[in-house]
Amino acid sequence: MNKKSIALLAALLSVATANAQQTQLVKEPIKGDFPLGLSGKHIAMWHSHGFYYESKLDRWEWQRARCFSNVEDIGNMPYVVKYLDPMLKNAGAVVLIPRERDFQKQKFIVDNDLSTKGGIVQKKGSWETTKGGYKHKTILRPNENPFKGGTHLEIKSSAKETATLTYKAPVASSKKGDYAVYVSWGNTPNNVSDVTYKVYHTGGVSEFVVNQKMYGATWQYLGTFSFDSAHASVVVSNKSHEKGVVTSDAVRFGGGMGMVARRPSAFVTNNAKSSSNGETQGHKLSPEDYDWKTSGVPSYLEASRYYLQAAGIPDSVYSRTKYQNDYNDDYQSRPHWANFLKKNNVPIDLTLAFHTDAGTTPNDSIVGTLAIYSTKNGNFTDGRGRQLSGIMSNLIQTQICHDIQMLHNSKWTKRALRDASYSEASVADAPTLLLELLSHQNLADMTYGLDPRFRFTVARAIYKGIVRYLNGAETPIQPLAPNTLAIEKKGGKTIRLSWKNTEDPLEPTANAARYRIYMRTDDNGFSPKFKEVTGESAEIELPEWGRRYSFKVTGVNDGGESFPTEQLSACLFNNSKKPALIVNGFTRISAPKSFDLGEKAGFEWWEDEGVADGMEPAFLGYQQNFNRNEPWLDDDNTGWGSTGVEWWGNTVHGNTHDFTHVQGKAYQKWGVSYVSASRKAFEKYPKLDAYRFVDVLFGEQRTVKNFREERDTFAVFTPGMISALRNALDKDIPIVLSGAYIGTDMVEQKDSVAIKFAAEKLGFRWMTNHASTTGSVYSTDNAKPYIRGIWNFNCATLSPEVLNGSSVRIESPDAIEPTQKAIRIMRYHDTQTSAGTLLKSNGNKVVVLGFPLEAIPSTNQKNALMKQLFTFFGVEFKK
Question: Where do the Fibronectin type-III domain residues begin and end (predicted)?
């Protein structure tokens, strides 16, 4: 049966269209509806396992083995939380996840009963306090439900707003950052379905409409926002088109740390396989002999069983074993949670359990993708046959394998489509897929599994499979992010923003019909408001002189909205000077470098840790065992691939796609106007003489081996880049270039053209990589006429700056030597090798650094260095 006939059969068997007519649980009106996408759909999904309490050992531990820098318990989080969740929401769906999705370690509870210290609830109007609601506790033990024992607030709805509640979170200035916002409300028969919530954040005000006829005595996710001490509140209004009541309970800002305390019960049962009948043996213990223990880790690392308790779900759902075995409770809780929501008016359309499994191969062959569904018990409660799960599973598995084979590996293995009564496949009262994407125990699989590009492909394939299952094969697919973004200065404060549509080679319907332009000011978050246009450019007048404005663009069609482009920024001052041009030359995202020598194989993290896409929550630590013949003995001794826990509980800072915004801060400080461009746009720039000088940020750009044997486009000095730089030099436009592999890449690729260009025109040659392990550099005596100082960039493993996520870690900076008439201007403190060169010859001014400028975390150090470079380039400052 082909893909089209499967989807058509699914459409005939499904009554999902009935759900599409219902009001959504949560909706953001400004985004609009996507009736040909997933508007009106509610999807429950979850990723793998999670950190849990093992009663028999009286310790918290992972449910799976640590291998290849990963552990399945969190290894699938990026697929689900970073990619699939926003894809589904961009198509209009409501996505429900029974695990914490926020990586923020801070948490603030604001409630009418008891708040985190400093939290405030401000009432306007005659709100009544009603029994039943959230009561804040810092620790939860068995049989404790935080959504019982407290109160909530109620008021009659009104056609015009007559009452509000304002929940203010005590976000200190030092705690500025991104926080997820969760709301809750009281369940009454008279609740209305269109309650307005406004979230005030650094980017402005985001408005949501919440259907309070659906279950509210739990945490319902609105979104993630940038908050600071002055902008961190949620306002609930009593305005409604319906007669009834508006209710409101606690609001949560941030994911926080685990709060469920565990110790053994009087009777502890053994772990049971998901496919078993649930009957297990056990033994007696004395609970009073043990102390209560919390996990001590951020909530997003914990298993769903603990999230559900903290979210007020009954223990009949999250502890089916009556607190006797948390392992069994965890996997059993997830489908029962979906059923609980469905019984409480949340119309679940389908469920998805996203896993990877075990298994190794003796060579570079792939274990591949398995799909499991269940026809056990015949029908769903609405009368539809459970064979729908098989149809949906086949459709999604086929889409995944097809897309991987087309984009990454033509020999990717499509494993069985299995009808089996695993708990996560058979319990939910909705079509269900239990996905085993690949083997986390096999190096060949994990060279893909750790790569952000592969994760995006898989998530997009699942999204496509879901939308085709629900809507049919001909449904339009949301676009890919636009490309070739650029900002040009026009007259006055006006800029021209331009981009290109990205064609999807797999999906002819995925072209953008229109585009949305989003803007942020200085270091604030993005405004939820956008400018929508149909062409591939727009002129925008910047609101003020001297402010730093950043932009991103999305593509939109009838299927939904794309992911955004990289961010580009601009800052203009009211003078006659030409602006500088900052170029984002850092486009790479990739897995760590790997090797396979037969007996020895694994990830060469010391050579290249790879580049995460934004913030990476699933990197556990560095591989320690490279002996392919070393067997697994226990999850504490996993043999080949065994991995440390250096990064446990911390997120890895990767390519955040905002480096012109980061670099532009120094330009703003010193009053230097600038605009910016993507490297793809820069390589095509026809008017470089419009710029005062050019600043190219190469970051950790480096050629990496692609999945399909071709080379990727992540080279530092591509032919287009060389041509653009040569054009600038011919016009005597000063240039500053910085990057960790600025010399290494061209030498590794044996690119004689780039090597010659660097030596003859840019004034440097490569000496070595791994030039520093401390990231400390100082200016040389030869540099005194131009720069003086000491600077530090993020290089040391697990430094506070790296762990705090302020910058990407540069594990292998370059040492470069001067050529021609260039001079050495910096050395690394630890190795005394050359860190930077400066060329001043025949009208050309070129500065080259073997480390990324954007990796300097100190604002003062960065500003001091940039001011000296500006002076060298001819910028005059008032004394």
Answer: 481-579
